[in-house]
Write a structure and sequence with these properties.
The chain is built from 13 helices and twelve strands. It has two domains: 144 residues, Aspartate Aminotransferase, domain 1, CATH 3.90.1150.10; 235 residues, Aspartate Aminotransferase, domain 2 (3-Layer(aba) Sandwich), CATH 3.40.640. The strands form two sheets. Strands 2-8-7-6-5-3-4 form a seven-stranded mixed beta sheet, sandwiched between helices. A five-stranded mixed beta sheet has the order 1-11-12-10-9, sandwiched between helices. It is an alpha/beta fold. Helix 6 links the parallel strand 3 and strand 4.
């Protein structure tokens, strides 16, 4: 018996990019201490008040089947929040609650792609993007970016990739690069979508983590609301990664069809978890700022740790909980460097190659351990890079 081509070709014969992470977890399981700077998991867990709200809702009996599109109260609250923060009128008919941002990404592409359609995404990319597009039956086509441009997609690269495509996936603030797309970049993306009749899927799960610049949702640009699906999530903004609450914002007719898809797949998000998400959103910006504060602080620690040396170059970190480091001066690839750093100093970082060829020779470092441990790990990384750069000179 054979499995489907769809499932066996999710990775297209390549790696899933998680080798260093898996090695680090195996070392920890065997009793070896490792400083993990690999995944976007907050070191401060979900706020106790949110967990209390979840517990109250469960004890009150909201443990049965919940409304598949999302509870009316949660959809209304997300819609009001989107209206307030983007200026685009939004109602519950524009909102579908999903089992996390990843499910939202998959559903959004299922809504706009037929098997064999070409789906565009920007390289570097979050590791699941190509597989998500292939799972939807699409041909995944990367749009390369350059380190010297701060990994912002350029107009000519967008235009070159667009002919014959059906959709474009973008992510700002960006994982893995920390880039916050400028107004000019957003305009180039929107122009490309309008000129080539593309659906735009905009992954905005890091929208509360902006250190420089301003987060701009392309849905707010003229003519874009009817061709844009925005992916949101409670995971990063409220440290609710394991609760699996996300959403899609889109035109009502698209949301209506996506409700049908949810009925046939996940059958919605547990009601008591939705109630906890509603409580968290109603806590307002103060809680979001509290969740974001450690990453803003650690970005400054990163800048200080990298000052006065030339073995490691920091790509401007404008948002999200990561920094991207250029280590090409060492003569090593990102993969070689990451494996050697783990073996030598038990520090785990993600090689840039895990996120596409545009990030080759780079590292993604998650700012997700306490300040003292983070600063010590960075200084060790820089010293290790300096030794390797000297050896390769």
């Amino acid at each position: 018996m054979q499995l489907s081509h769809r499932i066996t070709h999710l990775l297209d014969g390549g790696s899933d990019g998680w080798e260093v992470f898996n090695r680090a977890r195996a070392m920890i399981a065997s009793g070896t201490p490792v400083t993990e700077l690999t995944i976007g998991e907050h070191d401060i867990r979900t706020a106790p008040a949110i967990l209390d709200a979840m517990h109250r809702a469960a004890k009150a009996g909201h443990t049965g089947y919940a409304s598949v599109p999302g509870t009316p109260a949660l959809r209304d609250t997300i819609a009001a929040r989107v209206t307030d923060r983007t200026g685009v009128p939004t109602t519950r008919d524009n909102i579908l609650v999903t089992t996390g941002g990843q499910a939202a990404l998959f559903a959004a592409h299922m809504a706009v792609l037929d098997p064999g359609d070409t789906a565009l995404f920007v390289d570097p990319y979050y590791a699941t993007y190509p597989g998500t597009l292939r799972a939807a039956g699409a041909v995944a086509r990367a749009i390369p970016t350059l380190s010297r441009h701060g990994f912002q997609p350029q107009t000519d690269a967008l235009a070159a990739a667009a002919p014959g495509a059906r959709s474009l996936l973008v992510n700002t603030p960006n994982n893995p690069t920390g880039a916050v797309y400028s107004a000019a970049t957003i305009d180039a993306i929107c122009d490309t979508c309008r000129n080539h009749d593309l659906w735009l899927i905009s992954d905005e799960v890091y929208y509360t983590q902006v250190w420089d610049g301003t987060h701009i949702t392309p849905r707010a640009r003229p003519g874009m609301a009817d061709r844009t699906l925005v992916v949101g999530s409670m995971s990063k903004s409220h440290a609710m990664t394991g609760s699996r609450v996300g959403w899609i914002v889109g035109p009502p007719d698209v949301i209506s069809h996506l409700i049908d898809l949810s009925t046939d797949t996940t059958y919605g998000v547990p009601g008591y978890i939705q109630d906890a998400a509603l409580f968290a959103l109603n806590e307002g910006r103060a809680l979001e700022e509290e969740i974001a504060a450690p990453f803003r602080r650690r970005r400054a620690l990163t800048e200080a740790a990298l000052a006065g040396q030339n073995a490691v170059r920091l790509i401007p970190a404008e948002g999200a909980m990561y920094v991207m480091l250029d280590i090409r001066a060492t003569g090593l690839s990102g993969e070689e460097f990451a494996h050697a750093l783990l073996d030598t100093h038990q520090i785990a970082v993600m090689p840039g190659e895990s996120f596409g060829q545009s990030a080759a020779g780079h590292l993604r470092v998650a700012m997700t351990v306490d300040d003292a441990s983070y600063e010590a790990a960075l200084r060790t990384l820089v010293a290790f890079a300096a030794d390797r750069a000297h050896a390769s000179a």
